[in-house]
Amino acid sequence: MGKRFIRTVFLISVALLLCEISIICKYSGAAIGKGRVVTIDGINFLSTFTFSITGDYTTGYIYDAIKKSDKSLTITETIGYIQPFYWANDANYTHDAVTSLTSILRSAYAETKSRGGPLVIVSHSWGTVLAYIVLEQNPDIVVDKLITMGSPLSIVPMGTVDTHDLIGAFTILKLAQEGIAFINALSNIKTWYNYWASCDPVSEIIPAVDENNINATTSILINDPLSILFCHSGYFEDPSTWNEILANILNTQPSLSIAHSPYTISAPSDVNFNATGSLANDSRASYSWDFGDGYPDTGKSVTHFYRNPGNYNVTLTMTDSSGGTHKLSESITVLPPKIDVSYPDGYESLKRHFSTPSNSYAKEYAWQYGDSSSAETGQSHNHTFPSSGNYYVTLTLTLNDGSTISATEPIFVGPGTRYIYGHTVYYDETWYSGGTYVVQGSMSIAEGGKLTIESGARVELSSGSTFYVSGTLIATGVKFTAQDQAGSGWAGITFDGAGSKDSRLENCVLEWVSYFYGYYGVIYVKDSSPTIKGCTIDKCSTYYGIFIINGSPVIQGNTINGFKEYGIYVDGTSSPAVTGNTITNNQYGIYVSYSANNPIFSGNTYSDNAKGDLTVEGTIQGAVSWDETSDAVYNIKQLNIPQGSSLTIASGRTLKINPGISIPVSGTLKATGVKFTAQDQAGSGWAGITFYGAGSKDSRLENCVLECVPYYYGYYGVIYVNDSSPTIKGVYDR
What we know:
The protein is mostly beta strands.
């Protein structure tokens, strides 16, 4: 059966709906990549038949397909964050979607350009039209790779007007409304892959892709050519096809990036720098480098000598063959010379073995042990200290030009309590099982460094001291406590940056943390995703147990007790997995802000939280379920469910809504056996639920209680339905 016949059958069905076409769209080893993957879902031409050819349109199906794949983590680490784009389900709002997408892509391009990461767009069906319109209208937004699947752009051949079918006519109409008459190869699309299938009535080859030799159009054949509905979604539902597309996403070069080796740099050292990325393919481009130490250089690939340890800001400026300038900066850390320590007679002995790697720039290695003994020379030495205690061991390298570089390592020798001076861990360090470590000052773990604290160790910290983790902290069965439990406590643990994502606190106790200005809770997670599992966080006088900014940590099976504000605080850029925790005796249990995130809360137990268990505000994106334990109380400060998003609330839950707050629903709200009531039942109540537009038609309130809704000017009843058709069944209003 030919493709023309399949398309004809498809169009006969669609033509029946010509007068009321409804277009429905669908909408945390290596560090996180510096780029961004933006997903843009398509439409459902058959939406009026009450089923979808592209899956559940409330979930953001491309985003979900990537996140559910075994390549999700690799894409995040190699390319960068995956960002779904949500837009309206009505063709009349295509222009609004283009406006929103322009803002998102412009922001994504600015960020990826500044960080030297790639910008990838993965789009399907009508989402490909939105992407093309934005890139046609904004030539300054440069995309490293555009992946289109099942694109109706193929029905509008370059330089012609083809109105032979309904989809083509509709596509041409919408493009014309945006000032676009033809589909052209765009110079701001560095690589364009168009996936199409012979059985898909919406897609074909896009001539503009091949015309400029941007990339060969790839033909994807689906096994069942008669299954039109599944064929159009087969790109991400057929495993072999989807794996090919995921591999294509991974194989993306950034527009411009800085590569250097070695990755870990110890002074003094030569470092090789290379300009890489798609822009670096320009053979006539020129390059200049500023290495942050006053010694610049030019060339695509250069070698630079760093004499001294420190943090350096490396800036690459590229001038392309057209005269355009591209600038990228990256921070690198040059570490002090490495001191390795081993224990030939056991950890509690007075004897230590010291060594350092060979360095071609050093002609002499000198050791001073901080115990009044004479200095020794050579790459390695055994040394026996006179008594138990703390010592500062200093290694001095004399370079070939006569200059010197030093590194100092604090150590403790002998039996008993280990007194540790606060210091920075640049390499690997271990605190052993059964020991008590009294930390004077704060500990810092640099990116690339690792501190392992073995089970059974006890760590006592001085007033105001903290662990600041940019590298890796591994602690299992460790007690972190204050030296002076009757006075001011310590200041907690901070995980900052992707370099700390492999950190793990498991079955630990964290107690006696006090409030200090500038510190956010017992555990503060920023731009990271450590694992915090089975810990007890208690006996603290600070405001937050765990505070998360732009992070995706795993928080599982912990007990979080007795905080002045929130047991866990989650901002609108964070997507943690918070499961199986006991949240008790806090002012509030958990605070979560919904924005461009989708955190997971499941199986947590709440008790005796003075002002509520979960405090919620913001705009739901994607598909969110509230299914915490049945006695959990959700405090709603503000809540919006936009088109393309959904919120499902499990039976038995209670929502307490702030005074004067209405819940606007343009997407999908499903609640069965849920109680909606006012935060202040004796005072002014809340303002009800409003269902707006066709996007909310699948909403359902069943066997719910809605109470304490007084009159507010501009609000029309407890439930207000405007241009929608939700199901409201067995609801009790009082």
